[in-house]
Amino acid sequence: MSENGGYAVYMMYQSLRLHFISDSYDYFKYNGKTNTTKESFLTHKNKYSFYKLSRKYSLEDCRDFLVSNFVRQDFHWVGELLTPEAEDNYTNWLKTKQSLTYTFENDITYLFDHHKDFISVKSASPKLYDELLRHKVTLETVVILNDLMNFLPMWEKKIDDDIIWPTWKRKIKKYTPFVVYDKIKFRDIVRKYL
Question: Looking at residue 3, what is its pLDDT?
Fold first, then answer.
């Protein structure tokens, strides 16, 4: 059991968790650095969970594992990351990542088939946001569409829900740099339907 492996996962966990729960911390801006210390790791009551994760995944895969779980649900302690549910989150995230073009195209087809205007806020919330909450479209699709169309500032002004929307708004913003895709190809997919 490598102490450095467990500590590296601990540092990554702390920085990614902070990235997804805080408006002010940015994982990329601070290069994943936080003010965690080796002493705080060694006295952490769940340090063996970090060792387990370091044995199970490479550091790069561990980052993906953590991201996949932070965007799917809120984990309150590291032990929850050792459950079958966390593993399922990661597996489903990998499937979405590997078939991102297919998933995006299916989501776009669904949106254009069911809604003429799914981005604007005409009622309480945009149809795209409603479909995200109903799990009819993926978070990745919303992130990509926002990256292409930049509708989030409009949504921030017009959506007046102060209970659920702030969490989703942060999730969309914080997840954006982790979604890697071919911008020209995905823009062309959207243009096919316009």
Answer: 53
DSSP state of 101: H
* Distances from the Cα of 40 to the Cα of 7, 12, 16, 37, 90, angstroms: 10, 14, 17, 5, 27
pLDDT at 1: 39
CATH code: domain 3-92 is 1.10.8.60
What pLDDT score was predicted for residue 142? 97
Termini Cα distance of the chain: 55
Residue-wise pLDDT tens digits, 43-73: 999 999 999 999 999 999 999 999 999 998 7
Give 79's DSSP letter.
G
Q: Where in the chain is the domain with CATH 1.10.220.50?
A: 99-193
Q: From its phi and psi, is residue 31 left (phi > 0), alpha (psi between -120 and 50) or beta?
A: left
CATH 1.10.8.60 boundaries in the chain: 3-92
Asked whether the beta carbons of 71 and 171 are under 8 A apart, the reply is: yes
Within the chain, which residues score under 50 in pLDDT? 1
Distance CA 16, CA 10 (A): 10
Residue the block writes with tokens 């009622």: 123
pTM of full prediction above 0.70? yes
- CATH topology classification for 99-193: Annexin V; domain 1 (1.10.220)
